Amino acid sequence: MAYELEINDRLKDKTLAIIENRKEYKRDKTWSFWKVFDHNFDDCVIKSWNNFTINAFENSHELTNKKFPYQSIDSGKFYNKISSKLSTNSNVSFYKNLNEINSKNSIIFNSVFEKKLDKSELWQHFQGIEIETQKNIFDEKIINLMDFNCDQKNNVHFFYTLPFSKNKALVETTWLSDLEDQSLMDYDLQLENYIKNNLGVKNYKINFTEKGAIPLFYPSLRNDNKVINIGSAGGMTRLSTGYTFLNIQEHSKYIVKNIDKINEVKIFELGKKYQLLDKVFLRVLKKNPEKMPEIFFNMFKTSSNTIIKFLSNRSNLIEDINIISKMPKLIFLKAFFN
């Protein structure tokens, strides 16, 4: 948000206070998405891919797409780029606490949830490690987006592998479940077993570890003309996928474009149809976790353009129908009318 304000010269005659309690900005996560529109951070991209696979029940389905590459961004490079740009403007200041400033006549861009979120709700929680091997092991031209050939434990579980080079890859274990079951959180052991038994890699070093949990529900937020909720707190997470990064970029551009009349324009949000479809999809997931590997696998049997545009909020009605036609009708109808 701050970067978008700065590059559009919105901070020439205004001050911006950034409240951040972290001591330093360093690589702490990797953001990945399909590049369905241009963004400002191509110089922060670790790698792009045009090929991806989905694995379930010992089967594998491969898709290729030249139009919409899958990209991963290094958060460390992202932070450095933004910090360098903001440091040139004396109107931008950093603080540790909101109490340090007077925000009486200010617009507040809020990315923090007001209340502690409910752990019994559905979350996407994960841990990933970037591993490096001595030998060339990985096919760096193709990513494994979802591998369901693992213990599901009555939830939804998959692994995710992004090969950055022939001997370096990010491997992630991901769960769709509540956050109350501690037995799902032995991430280190899960990764160790998967890398050894599924990827066949015995010797490697760990360069980087990331861990996170994304709420797959929209928490209630107070409405205030002075406060603009952004990021996940602003509803920018696509609940069926967890994808957030490009939605944040689009939201930021919308805010900057309309900043002078922000209280008069409608609140930016993901399309209503995606909110409805995701709501139904997650109801099915909660009640039928054992069916989800097959459901995800079949979703990707459409054309690569169709599935990518659907997951990236860019699909048209025909593409929506194409995706829906791959779903088991009865359980989705029950979820829709529930």
Structural class: alpha+beta
Q: Say what oligomer this is.
A: single chain
Strand order of the largest sheet: 5-4-10-11-12-9-13
Strand content: 25-35%
Looking at the structure, what is the overall shape? Answer: globular
Largest sheet: 7 strands, mixed
Radius of gyration: 21 Å
Distance between the termini: 38 Å
Please provide a written account of the structure.
This protein has 338 residues and is α+β, with helices and mostly antiparallel strands. It has 3 domains: 2-115 and 221-261, no CATH class; 123-215; 272-337, no CATH class. The chain has helices at 2-7, 75-86, 187-197, 245-257, 272-287, 292-299, 304-311, 317-324, 329-337, and strands spanning 16-19, 30-34, 45-49, 51-56, 59-64, 70-74, 92-95, 108-110, 123-132, 142-147, 156-165, 168-177, 205-215, 227-229. The chain starts with a helix and ends with a helix.
